[in-house]
């Protein structure tokens, strides 16, 4: 089999994107607790089915609405929440549309609010009208399958499981999970990074970065006030851990008998070479995640204002290639910082230092 420079098999089709990595579910599936193991295996089987039957859609095939108005105040989200009623047929039964009042189902209400929070950050801070930039309707399905331990973006919509209550809780609880998955849609409509190896790890990292920014924006937090955790509140009480990932300290999010230990590296000296998880996309994403945290922490204030703007300019600027490696992305962030903030300011210098600290070259 021939591969490109990123190690991606030629002809490789990108797959749907989940918040919980396969290695976490693999470990849970080996649990001595038969109930936990069975639910983890069921989730893995469902994910395998989705990988086989779905791929990330291209911009050409995506739905669209009327072109965005020149008046940003007229640009509103178009949210629709569906209920799968523990089945797997998508999208399911419509239970809430744009402008409808909250109902009694907290999961539906959280999904609706999370879609809105994501839409708001991208519009207000990055002048992006929905995830495709042209007002794409935001659809989400809740109560997917029985004891489904994941949430995913399938190229067209969000899907949330309720968790099994043993290792994971309801996947609509952390707003950054919602923002993470929808950002896969933003990446799809911009650089469309290949979901394998380093490009795939960048794809995952960008979703973590903007998922965290969406949470920080919703809470009005500065970089120093943020927890920099992805999926805080998602792990069930019996699990020893705080979240799925930590951008501040990759490799420390959990250390549990059932889930194992968080394998994320914080720098290139500890880069993980693996054929699993599409070449470690959820693992090595810890390296660019950590670089972003270092940058945001160095600059201070609200992370979306400068650090986030540099990352967004890089993602949406048109120069990021589908097979970009970490070094390619790093060089473009340096260029973006120089273009937006100048080559003599602290933004430019801080970007250089952030990548240097994680061992990614910028020259």
Overview features:
single chain; alpha+beta; Elastase, domain 1; Neutral Protease, domain 2; six-stranded mixed sheet; two-stranded antiparallel sheet; 10 helices; 10 strands; 9% strand; globular
Spatial extent as radius of gyration = 19 Å
Quote the average pLDDT.
Answer: 91
Number of strands: 10
**Shape type:** globular
Write down the CATH class of the largest domain: Alpha Beta
Major β-sheet annotation: 6 strands, mixed
Helix count, per DSSP?
Answer: 10
Structural classification:
alpha+beta
Would you tell me which CATH topology of the largest domain applies?
Answer: Elastase, domain 1
Protein architecture, described:
With 363 residues, the protein is α+β, with helices and mostly antiparallel strands. The protein folds into two domains: 17-188, Elastase, domain 1 (Roll), CATH 3.10.170.10; 197-358, Neutral Protease Domain 2 (Neutral Protease, domain 2). It contains ten helices and ten strands. Helix 3 (106-126) crosses helix 4 (175-188), helix 8 packs across helix 9 and helix 9 packs antiparallel against helix 10 (346-358).
């Amino acid at each position: 089999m021939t591969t490109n420079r990123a190690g991606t098999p030629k002809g490789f089709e990108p797959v749907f994107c989940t918040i919980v990595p396969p290695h976490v579910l693999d470990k849970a599936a080996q649990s001595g607790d038969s109930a936990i193991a069975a639910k983890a295996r069921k989730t893995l089987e469902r994910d395998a089915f989705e990988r086989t039957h779905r791929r990330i859609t291209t911009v050409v095939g995506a739905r669209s609405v009327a072109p965005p108005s020149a008046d940003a105040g007229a640009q509103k989200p178009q949210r629709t929440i569906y209920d799968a009623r523990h089945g797997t047929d998508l999208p399911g039964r419509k239970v809430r549309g744009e402008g409808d009042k909250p109902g009694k189902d907290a999961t539906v209400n959280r999904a609706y609010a999370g879609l809105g929070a994501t839409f708001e950050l991208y519009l207000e801070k990055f002048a992006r009208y929905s995830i495709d930039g042209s007002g794409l309707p935001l659809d989400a399905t809740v109560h997917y399958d029985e004891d489904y331990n994941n949430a995913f973006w399938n190229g067209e919509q969000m899907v949330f499981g309720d968790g099994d209550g043993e290792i994971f809780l309801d996947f609509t609880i952390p707003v950054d999970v919602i923002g993470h998955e929808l950002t896969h849609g933003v990446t799809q409509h911009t650089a469309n990074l290949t979901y394998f190896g380093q490009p795939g790890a960048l794809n995952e990292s960008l979703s973590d970065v903007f998922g965290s920014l969406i949470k920080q924006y919703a809470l009005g937090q500065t970089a120093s006030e943020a927890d920099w955790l992805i999926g805080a509140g998602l792990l069930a009480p019996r699990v020893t851990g705080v979240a799925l990932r930590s951008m501040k300290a990759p490799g420390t999010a959990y250390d549990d008998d059932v889930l194992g230990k968080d394998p994320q590296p914080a720098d290139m000296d500890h880069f993980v070479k693996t054929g699993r998880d599409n070449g470690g996309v959820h693992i090595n994403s810890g390296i660019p995640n950590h670089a972003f945290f270092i940058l945001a922490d160095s600059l201070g204030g609200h992370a979306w204002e400068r650090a986030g703007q540099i990352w967004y300019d890089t993602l949406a600027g048109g120069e990021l290639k589908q097979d970009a490696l970490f070094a390619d992305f790093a060089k473009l962030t340096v260029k973006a910082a120089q273009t937006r903030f100048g080559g003599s300011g602290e933004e430019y210098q801080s970007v250089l230092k952030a990548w240097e600290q994680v061992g990614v070259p910028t020259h």
